[in-house]
Amino acid sequence: MYKQWQTEVVLNANYRMEENLRMIKICLEKLSDKVIWQKPNESTNSIGNLILHLCGNITQYGISSIQGTEDNRNRNEEFMTLSGLDKDELFQKLVSTVEKAKFVFNSATNDELIKKRSVQGFEFSGIGNIIHVVEHLSYHTGQIALWTKILINSDLGFYDGIDLNVKNE
Fold it and tell me: What is the pLDDT along the chain (169 residues), one digit of tens a residue?
């Protein structure tokens, strides 16, 4: 049985992943399929590469590790791909991956959430892997947002209609 704090961690992780999907969708809607695979320079990645990378990372840390299934990730391929999927296909792939991760998080037992396992040579509990998935998704969502702002020279409107200056109660 879950402890209350574990339930709260999973609920908040799911919320944050959905928020990141919402922001990535806004970015993709403002861009053409052509620019999805453009790189700002040779030291950076395209939005397409970042989405493929997110799918690989979420699968490795959030799905296969917690479920204890085989890790089939080919990380290098995520960055070597130069085209092949349009923005809608990329987004659906990411949505599907996040939905699978949320299912795994929601289905994980207390033992699976606290069990330590090794991923990419790092050792984390299931909760540690969940936190990694959320922070990694957020990090690359920020990169996608920045690259989108540079490409369109406009605010993205993530929080249109919300007063972000409201003080805590």
Answer: 557 767 889 999 999 999 999 999 999 999 999 999 999 888 899 999 999 999 999 999 999 999 999 989 888 788 787 888 999 999 999 999 999 999 999 999 988 999 999 999 999 999 999 999 999 999 999 999 999 999 999 999 999 999 999 999 9
Choose among 50, 134, 60: nearest CA to 94: 50
Hey, is 43 helix, strand or coil? coil
Q: What are phi and psi of 81, to 5 degrees?
A: -65, 135
Beta bridge partners of residue 118, listed in sequence order: 123
3-state SS assignment for residue 118: strand
Task: Check residue 133 and report its DSSP letter.
Answer: H
CATH 1.20.120.450 corresponds to the domain 4-152: yes
Cα angle 26-41-151, degrees, rounded to a multiple of 5: 30
Q: What is the amino acid identity at position 109?
A: T
Query: Could you state, in order of their start, the residue ranges of all structural domains in the chain?
Result: 4-152
Contacts of 18 (CB under 8 A, 6+ apart): 98
Cα–Cα distance for residue pair 160/149, rounded to 1 Å: 15
